[in-house]
Write a structure and sequence with these properties.
It contains 25 helices and 22 strands. By secondary structure, it is α+β, with helices and mostly antiparallel strands.
């Protein structure tokens, strides 16, 4: 212990003796360790930390699928109830249906709340108890008894001021009285953090017979000893039986099972793992940089080490001393890196997509701290070992005789290898970043099919009890559109029940005069019930025919508009105008196709455009519509005016989801932007570290070769010869690194294929431009010491020791 303390004290003195070296090394390590800790904190929360439920590994998400159209889809109520009755692998199987509620309270303005209708037993299955009150009983999960509600802790505090007497109070939700029976804990955020209340799902007789309407989620808990593979086998068999029992609705449909944690993180997982790999490369580059600094420092300490060895110090004693110093550097760098990680984690969450699963749980917890300590110690050993091994083998005779004039050939080789490694790793990161930048640029060039500028969207959902009749619903929205159209600065107003990119409503269809498709092979279309002004308000182009008018009312002939993709796919070589189409939304009624409009991106800019069908909302009213208001100036200035217009029609009617179309498009590429920005930052850091490393090696080489350069110049060498000598040495190292990096990038970037859009993982432009950029940076890093070398005075250099 005394020897260790002695090593520590000596190490501290040596580090303080060279503050410039110490500061540069600590900054490089802090950047690498801090970036790793910040990214790992996200990976830990999203991928590694167990869900906050009882025995979460047995929680399974069940989804229906119909390949190739729907690789993953919601579950129909009828199929869910049959699964409940027929399965033998789940302890419990529950349904969850997202549902929105209008909350009317005389003490404040009406509010639209995001909620969920859930099966009784959900909370018990998750192993979560309410903070106050109770959960649902089996009786309350039946029609006629379902008017009870459980509040989230956030809603209880935000809307009701944490009223301790809230239990038993009646709330008006969707014009129906519900009794508050419970409040969930603050940490409970299910199925997501936006959900603020829960009511029983209580499927009625009509819903229980719905096998073709898919709108619920299913979650189950496996029985003890049952594997997910066994559950998949049984559920597939049940799906096959249901396809025989209900051929019209279930033919071609099967079921997919996922562990809940895996399912929640499935979309962000590839990006997070790639980013974790990227920051590991940054740390390796930082280690190589510090190792080079230590080698240079070890060269300067050759005489000291030789004297210690001559006085009896063993090689292990010298290695231990040098490793102690490197670990001290790493610990200080790790401490500073941990502080950077705290700031970096906040930055990551600000850049991350809003729907990042369990994003609220991203913290520097014990696991992240342990990870940071581990990589700090490993880093200290990794970057300190090579210099320690090299320095611990001095040539006593030459070092003591010459005074340690220059480095050994071994030092040159190791330092050169480290620079090559830095360049290669930096190139891999830069090519990865370049591919994502190219991909994101192409994604932003995609035409969404509408004009997102200067357009505000406002969701309005009418309670079914208050607006039970179609005429009431259509009259409300017609009046709202008319009033909004007269507001100053408004250019156009439209409404739709399904908003592109944000919402989704899929129906089957058939074409008049054609034989019906076989069960399970019916085509599908995205369906929109829209107002006459919708296309103008959205900026969707008419290609042929006409748009809807005010004359397309309920008692007028039924009409429809389709998109270009649907026209080409289902009416090849013929004119769709005048043809009849029936969408399976109620009884069979054929609509005459009167127009064709341009394609609109429905599932994101990077997804193919599906068939799309539009119908006048006056002919097919919906209780929930989204208003689109196109304005001359800033659309957000209309927020209060739109809200006021809604309240003037119905004082109890709230609005929700007030956003611009630009926001919707911006948020739709949040995951791609997140990956691009972070990998781009890591690539730039890697480039800087590699350039600094190359500059350091060449600068030190010039210092060590001053005597040689002086002799060359005394013998007639010109300045250009000196520049060629120094730059040539640096560029050889850089080019070797570039070649190795290209080979590695060619192999490694293939794992990024799922993150790229319209860009190959071996994109030629990226693989040409990035190496050229890195080569230019390497040239600049070599030129600086080369210019210093050419100004060497031969007379002074010849006296140099």
């Amino acid at each position: 212990m005394g020897t260790l303390l002695q090593d520590l004290r000596y190490g501290v003195r040596m580090l303080l003796k060279k503050p410039g070296f110490t500061v540069v090394a600590i900054i490089a390590l802090a950047l690498g360790i801090g970036a790793n800790a910040a990214i790992f904190s996200v990976v830990n929360a999203v991928l590694l930390r167990s869900l906050p439920y009882s025995d979460p590994d047995r929680l399974i998400v069940l989804r229906e699928n119909k390949l190739p159209q729907f690789p993953e889809f919601s579950v129909s109520p009828g199929n869910f109830l049959d699964w409940q009755k027929q399965n033998t692998v789940f302890e419990k199987l529950v349904a969850v249906r997202g549902f929105n509620y209008n909350l009317v309270d005389t003490s404040s303005e009406p509010e639209r709340l995001r909620g969920a209708r859930v099966s009784a037993g959900l909370f018990e299955m998750l192993g979560v108890k309410p903070a106050q009150g109770r959960t649902f009983t089996a009786e309350e999960d039946t029609p006629g008894h379902e008017n009870v509600v459980i509040l989230s802790n956030g809603l209880w505090q935000r809307r009701f001021g944490a009223d301790p007497n809230i239990l038993g109070r009646s709330l008006m939700l969707n014009s129906t009285s519900y009794t508050v029976i419970g409040i969930m804990p603050q940490t409970f955020q299910f199925p997501d953090r936006e959900t603020e209340l829960f009511t029983p799902v209580a499927f009625n007789a009509q819903q229980a017979e719905q096998h073709g309407a898919h709108y619920v989620s299913a979650i189950g808990r496996l029985k003890q000893g049952v594997t997910i593979e066994q559950a998949r086998t049984e559920m597939s068999a049940i799906a096959a039986r249901l396809a025989q029992q209900y051929p019209d609705s279930n033919t071609g449909w099967s079921v997919s099972l996922f562990q809940m944690q895996e399912y929640e993180a499935r979309e962000i997982k590839p990006a997070l793992l790639i980013l974790l790999g990227a920051v590991a490369l940054v740390l390796l580059i930082a280690c190589a940089n510090v190792a080079n600094l230590l080698l240079a420092r070890a060269t300067a300490r050759q005489r000291e080490i030789a004297i210690r060895t001559a006085l009896g110090a063993s090689r292990w004693r010298v290695i231990r001393q040098l490793l102690t110093e490197s670990i001290l550097l790493a610990l200080v760098g790790g401490g500073l890196g941990l502080l950077l990680a705290i700031w970096g984690t906040d930055l990551l969450l600000a850049l991350a997509p809003q729907d990042l699963p369990r994003g609220q749980g991203v913290t520097l917890d014990g696991r992240v701290l342990a990870f940071t300590i581990l990589i700090t110690l490993l880093t200290g050993v990794i970057f300190g070992l090579a210099p320690a091994l090299q320095a611990s083998r001095p040539n006593l005779n030459e070092t003591l005789k010459e005074g340690g004039r220059g480095p050994t050939g071994g030092h040159h080789r190791v330092r050169g290898s480290l620079v090559i490694t830095e360049v290669a790793l930096a190139l891999v990161l830069l090519i990865g970043a370049g591919l994502l930048i190219r991909s994101f640029h192409r994604l932003q060039q995609v035409d969404p099919g509408f004009n997102p500028k200067n357009a505000l969207t406002v969701a309005v959902s009418l309670p079914a009890k208050k607006y039970a009749e179609d005429d009431q619903q259509s009259a409300f929205f017609a009046q709202l559109i008319e009033r909004a159209s007269t507001m100053p600065g408004v250019l156009a107003v439209g409404a739709t029940q399904s908003l592109p990119i944000h919402d989704d409503y899929v129906l089957g269809f058939n074409i008049q005069g054609r034989p019906p498709d076989a069960p399970g092979e019916e085509p599908n279309t995205n369906y929109y019930a829209v107002s006459p002004g919708y296309f103008k308000a959205m900026g969707i182009s008419l290609l042929r025919g006409r748009l809807f008018t005010e004359q397309d009312k309920k008692d007028a002939p039924r009409v429809a508009i389709i998109n270009e993709t649907m026209a080409k796919k289902f009416f090849p070589g013929e004119d769709p105008i005048g043809k009849g189409i029936n969408v399976t939304n109620g009884p069979e009624r054929f609509r005459e196709i009167v127009g064709i409009v341009s394609d609109v991106k429905q599932y994101g800019l990077d997804k193919a455009t599906p068939a799309q069908t539009y119908e006048p909302f006056l002919q097919e009213p919906f209780s929930g519509m989204t208003l689109i208001v196109r304005t001359e100036g800033d659309p957000t200035a209309m927020n209060a005016s739109i809200r006021s217009q809604v309240l003037s029609i119905d004082k109890d009617q709230p609005v929700s989801r007030i956003r611009t179309l630009e926001q919707i498009v911006y948020e739709s590429v949040a995951k791609q932007r997140f990956s691009m920005l972070l990998l781009g930052v890591f690539g730039v850091v890697a480039l800087i570290l590699a350039a600094v490393g190359l500059y350091g090696v060449m600068s030190y080489a010039v210092t060590q070769r001053t005597h040689e350069i002086g002799i060359r110049m005394a013998l007639g060498a010109q300045q250009k010869d000196v520049i060629r000598l120094v730059v040539g040495q640096g560029m050889v190292l850089a080019l070797i690194g570039v070649v190795i990096g290209l080979v590695a990038a060619f192999a490694l970037t293939r794992v990024m294929a799922t993150l790229l859009f319209n860009v190959s993982a071996t994109d030629p432009l990226t693989f040409l431009a990035i190496p050229a950029l890195l080569t230019m940076v390497a040239l600049a890093a070599s030129l600086v010491p080369a210019r210093r070398a050419m100004r060497v005075d031969p007379m002074i250099a010849l006296r140099y020791e």
